[in-house]
Design brief:
The chain is an all-alpha fold. It has one domain: Growth Hormone, Chain: A (Up-down Bundle), CATH 1.20.1250. The protein is 83% helix and 0% strand.
């Protein structure tokens, strides 16, 4: 942990960026739990939950290309501030959703919220490489992952309690109180042309998309597992915090473990493997293996503790995949293309995540598949995705891509 504290102490710009993430992400996870709570109150079917995730993911896919161009053309700091403030104001509109007949408004506001997120996320990923030196990029990404995970654990825990005890409306207000402190399509094609001419970087940019094709559906299934398979109806946890909905309590615990896993994984892997490119490629491969193993445990779990164990294994893998692929992109991509490259990565992962989440809900409601059957399908999909990545990793090793020295880049990215 000394390296992370040293980075925060010595890099003032990154410290401010990090504090902004702490505040914003804590509100985001409050938001997610409150959203799940209001959906289950107003309607009770798997497709409704899938629609929630689609409303969060599809705008990211559709608007990320434009967002990448904006991030490369305008002041990134201004984009971050404006988009976050507008997100806070948008989510306050959720307070007006009171009946099942108003669920359309909930989805509409969610869509607009994530249009703004499409501006925020690629911009933040692009700006990180501007405020952190290349030798500190893996450290910064690992710390970001730990922060995301900690805020997932804390925000989901507090959000679940707030939603279950005080109501979803109160949770939305609290969530947004955290957020308040803080000709383009042709240009996007130009950025994609750069990726097409750099196949190794293109492969790295598609790593998260490949992973989200698997873990996107798991996000939907977690709600079903928590509410129908492992609800904490008689737990001490529920009694102590006076939580009426045992499913919400179980979901909060799943998110806490997810936060621990995604935070622990990158730190352990970085400690073990180091920062060399070839070692980070190996870390991504190990991440995919852990992802599949974790999902297999989920599908075979008979108790909540076993399910939480599978969640821990799975999220150690996903966290490693996420951090190492992000660090490689930040190191290898010239600054003048970085916003568009991260926008492409973000668009691709949200598209595959949308497909996966829709499948998870549709399979349960329309194909007659049980939650464990859908989990098994996603596990096999994870095997396929992992094998494809293993081939890419092998090709990178044979071609020596992972050992190519990092080129020195000027502020213009040249």
């Amino acid at each position: 942990m000394h390296q992370y504290l040293l980075l925060l102490r010595n890099n003032r710009q990154y410290r401010y960026l990090w504090w902004g993430s702490v505040v914003s992400q804590l509100g985001d996870w409050f938001n997610l739990l409150a959203s799940a709570e209001i959906i289950t109150q107003l309607t009770n079917n798997g497709v409704a939950i899938s629609y929630l995730f689609l409303a969060r993911f599809l705008p990211l896919f559709l608007f990320s290309p434009l967002a990448g161009v904006v991030a490369d053309r305008f002041n990134r700091r201004t984009i971050l501030i404006i988009s976050d403030v507008l997100r806070a104001l948008t989510v306050l509109g959720f307070l007006f959703v009171r009946t099942s007949g108003q669920i359309w408004l909930f989805y509409l506001l969610t869509v607009f919220q994530f249009i703004l997120s499409a501006l925020f996320t690629p911009t933040r990923n692009a700006v990180l490489a501007n405020v952190v030196s290349q030798e500190d990029l893996v450290t910064a990404n690992a710390l970001d992952s730990l922060t995301w995970s900690t805020m997932l654990a804390v925000g989901a825990f507090l959000g679940g309690i707030a939603a279950a005890t005080l109501g979803a409306g109160t949770a939305f207000v609290v969530a947004k109180s955290f957020e308040l402190p803080q000709t383009g399509w042709l240009d996007f094609v130009d950025g994609f042309r750069y990726l097409w001419q750099a196949p190794f970087i293109l492969a790295i940019a598609l790593v998260k998309a490949a992973g989200s094709l698997v873990w996107g559906g798991i996000n939907v299934l977690e709600v079903t597992y928590a509410g129908q398979v492992f609800p904490l109806n008689d737990s001490i946890f529920r009694q102590v915090f006076h939580i009426e909905n045992g499913g919400t309590a179980a979901l909060g615990m799943i998110y806490i473990v997810s936060g621990v896993g995604t935070g622990l994984g990158p730190l352990v892997m970085r400690r073990w493997l180091g920062d060399r490119r070839q070692r980070m490629l190996m870390g991504i491969s190990l991440g995919f293996v852990l992802l599949v193993v974790g999902i297999v445990i989920l599908g075979r779990s008979g108790t909540l503790p076993v399910y939480l164990t599978g969640t821990l294994v799975r999220t150690v893998g996903t966290g490693t995949v996420w951090v190492f692929s992000a660090a490689l992109l930040q190191i290898m991509t010239p600054d003048r293309f970085r916003g568009r490259v991260f926008a492409f990565e973000f668009a691709a992962l949200t598209l595959t995540q949308s497909i996966s989440t829709f499948f998870a809900g549709y399979a349960q409601d329309s194909l007659g598949m049980g939650v464990r059957q859908v989990t098994a399908v996603l596990a096999w999909l994870g095997v396929v995705v992992g094998l494809v990545w293993m081939f890419v990793h092998w090709r990178a090793h044979v071609a020596g891509w992972g050992e190519t020295p990092v080129p020195a880049m000027s502020s213009s990215g040249e």
